[in-house]
From TrEMBL:
Keywords: Disulfide bond, Electron transport, Redox-active center, Transport. GO terms for cellular component: cytoplasm. Residues 10-139 form the Thioredoxin domain. It comes from the Archaea. One of its GO terms (molecular function) is protein-disulfide reductase activity. CDD domains: TRX_family. Gene3D superfamilies: Glutaredoxin. PANTHER family: GEO12009P1 (PTHR45663:SF11). InterPro entries: Thioredoxin, Thioredoxin-like_sf, Thioredoxin_domain. The keyword Transport applies. This is Thioredoxin. It comes from Ferroglobus placidus (strain DSM 10642 / AEDII12DO).
Length: 139
């Protein structure tokens, strides 16, 4: 059991490195419209909401299995919607004040922000098709 947990932790750390965009984006277009989820926290959260018209914030935590289940879906959607929607990930354990600001009581929670304002949210691990329908409805 301990070995399995070590493997999970290692894989999660690899995923986190990938998601944080180590290596950076290439060119101005990629910087303007990232094609990977970006890590947000108390120091850059408001700035990201102001910078992009459409932002989907994934409120998650490392220990949350449903959060881990939707992480690859969020990765795919970030690629598919690059230029239209920016995907951001906020660790609720590390940023409880932001989670409290938006009334996050269960994770994963996805909130769709339009022009810096929350317009819709879904709570729980949904299949890709459902999340995509939700995004299209809010665009």
């Amino acid at each position: 059991m301990d070995e399995l947990e070590k493997i999970r932790k290692k894989k999660l750390m690899e995923l986190m490195k990938k998601m944080s965009g180590e290596g950076g984006y290439q060119g101005k277009q990629a910087e303007k419209y990232p094609d990977k989820p970006i890590e947000v926290n108390s120091s850059n959260f408001d700035e990201i909401l102001k910078k992009y018209e459409n932002v989907v914030v994934d409120f998650w935590a490392e220990w949350c299995m449903p959060c881990r289940m939707i992480a690859p879906i969020i990765e795919q959607l970030a690629k598919e919607y690059a230029g239209k929607v920016v995907f951001a990930k906020l660790n609720t354990d590390e940023n409880p004040q932001i989670a409290a600001r938006y009334g996050i009581t269960g994770i994963p929670t996805l909130i769709f922000f339009k022009n810096g304002k929350p317009v819709d949210k879904i709570i729980g691990a949904y299949p890709k098709g459902e999340i995509e329908r939700w995004i299209k409805r809010n665009l």
